[in-house]
Design a protein that fits this description.
Blueprint (H helix, E strand, L loop, with lengths): L1 E3 L8 E6 L2 E9 L2 E5 L16 E4 L1 H5 L5 E4 L2 H4 L5 H10 L13 H9 L6 H12 L3 E7 L5 H13 L3 H4 L6 E6 L2 E9 L3 E7 L4 E6 L5 H8 L8 H14 L15 E5 L6 E6 L6 E6 L2 E7 L1
Parallel strand pairs: 7-14
Antiparallel strand pairs: 1-6, 2-3, 2-6, 3-4, 4-5, 7-10, 8-9, 9-10, 11-13, 12-13, 14-15
Helix pairs in contact: 3-4, 8-9
Length: 299
């Protein structure tokens, strides 16, 4: 299927582009284009409250934009409904509501009138992008009150759909697992006081550092490269960042200037800093306690 700007014929599926999206309709004549809602433009905000199936002239439909018509190959033409049936179906739905951006939009309407099949390529594209997005959840817990293994099991089940003890025998470090054709990546780290786990569908690393432990001089020798300088809390934040990006390398050789590392402090009573290295655009942070997790922040 391809879309071309040409003279419209009765029963054509037509569309215009408004920004990054398309608005669809069924062309009957210059005076009658049937659409589900008006184009998503500011001047039609009142008319789209709520969107209804309506008939407008071609100028209103186009809103000053180029009208494209759907052109089909010989094989594709066998799938479309007869012209009169397309027009009859579109007219029979005038005044209909129930608009839904994802499940019942103008493209669903036009395809159902034209092919007899309710579908939207825009919705399918949005769904694929949503399903392929990088997800990232981070859990942390106070080890004086909760078990690291319990938190790991909870996080893997809630965010990754995994039974940690049935599916794998791992309780620390970083590892990946394939579940139902999808990769689940898990990274864990801890201090004497705090444990944290990151769960993602892409490679991820996590690092936890306890403010004041070890002492600054010892930590500088452990992590600082030749030209690296950090003092006080920034030194421990650097430590957590390096651990999150290390991937098994010596900490002195790890550079933390690359994008994708985010750092945040735990509540003051834990006195820790956590860093996560991931390509995810957004992460959710959960505090785990007594078999449940509550969202702590969205970063």
């Amino acid at each position: 299927m391809k879309w071309t700007p040409r003279d419209c014929a009765k029963g054509d599926m037509v569309r215009i582009q408004t920004g990054s999206v398309f608005h669809y309709g069924i062309f009957v004549s210059e005076d009658e284009v049937i659409q589900f809602g008006y184009p998503p433009l500011p001047e039609y905000a009142d008319k789209n409250d709520p969107p209804l199936v309506c008939a407008v002239d071609i100028d209103t439909f186009s809103s000053g934009r180029v009208v494209q018509c759907l052109d089909l190959s010989r094989a594709e033409r066998k799938k479309r409904l007869p012209v009169e049936q397309t027009v009859k179906t579109a007219r029979s739905r005038l005044g209909e509501g129930g608009y839904n951006l994802l499940h019942n939009n103008c493209e669903h309407f036009a395809n159902e009138c034209y092919f007899g099949v309710k579908r939207s390529e825009q919705e399918e594209t949005m769904r694929k992008k949503w399903q392929s997005r990088v997800t990232l959840d981070v859990y942390f817990t106070d080890l004086s009150k909760n078990s690291e293994k319990d938190m790991l099991e909870y996080a893997a089940r809630r965010s990754g759909g995994l039974d940690i003890y049935r599916d794998m025998n791992v309780s620390s470090g970083s590892f990946t697992y394939e579940a139902d054709g999808k990769w689940v990546c898990i990274s864990t780290d801890k201090t004497a006081r705090c444990a944290a786990v990151a769960v993602s569908n892409k490679p991820v690393g996590i690092g936890v550092a306890q403010y004041g432990s070890p002492d600054e001089n010892t930590l500088k020798k452990l992590i600082c490269g030749l030209f690296e300088r950090a003092e006080g809390r920034e030194l421990y934040r650097l430590y957590s960042r390096k651990k999150s990006a290390a991937g098994g390398r010596r900490l002195k050789s790890v550079k933390t200037s690359k994008p994708g590392i985010r750092t945040f402090d735990t509540p003051e009573e834990l006195g820790c800093v956590i860093s996560v290295c991931s390509e995810a655009e957004e992460l959710r942070v959960f505090s785990y306690e007594n078999g449940a997790a509550s969202i702590s922040d969205r970063i």
